[in-house]
Amino acid sequence: SFDAIGEEEDETNVLAAIIELTEYFEDDIKKNNQEQLYYEIELPLIKVLADMQITGMYVDKHELSEFGKRLKSRIDVLKDEIYEYAGEEFNINSPKQLGHILFENLSLPHGKKTKSGYSTNIDVLNKLVGSHPIIEDIIEYRTLTKLNSTYVDSLIEVIDKNTGRIHSSFNQTVTATGRISSTEPN
Fold this sequence. Notes:
Blueprint (H helix, E strand, L loop, with lengths): L6 H25 L3 H21 L1 E2 L2 H26 L8 H11 L16 H7 L4 H25 L7 E2 L2 E3 L9 E3 L3
Helix pairs in contact: 3-6, 5-6
């Protein structure tokens, strides 16, 4: 069993596996004429990405929180304006309810109604800009709520309590295009 293996024997097995894998992948790299790519670009980049992950990005949690408060304040103002234009309160985030308000109550021009209701996506809203002041408020409302949920609320949650930094994981070989991606958080 694995538990019965001594520490020295365990280290020897790990080193043997690494050597075997190294030889296997070196042959693949040579076979695919990727020596320059691997040794001059990819390998040196590993240290840079590791340093970035370890160092992290400093975030002023207080300032981010204050920014979130300003966003929420503006969102509340927009919500009240939207309700006033609509003549009633409704779930602004519900395409069905929003479609009903825009295209039935306010009689704004619309595309075909599907079985699930009217489309209220950004393309539809952009075509309606200037037709009623509610449209600009809805677009700004969506923009600010997305900004708040994607950046403020989610980033505050991943700030390391000890370092005050966000330590994202950088992925060197995940994308098909060769770009670097990041996760936890992106």
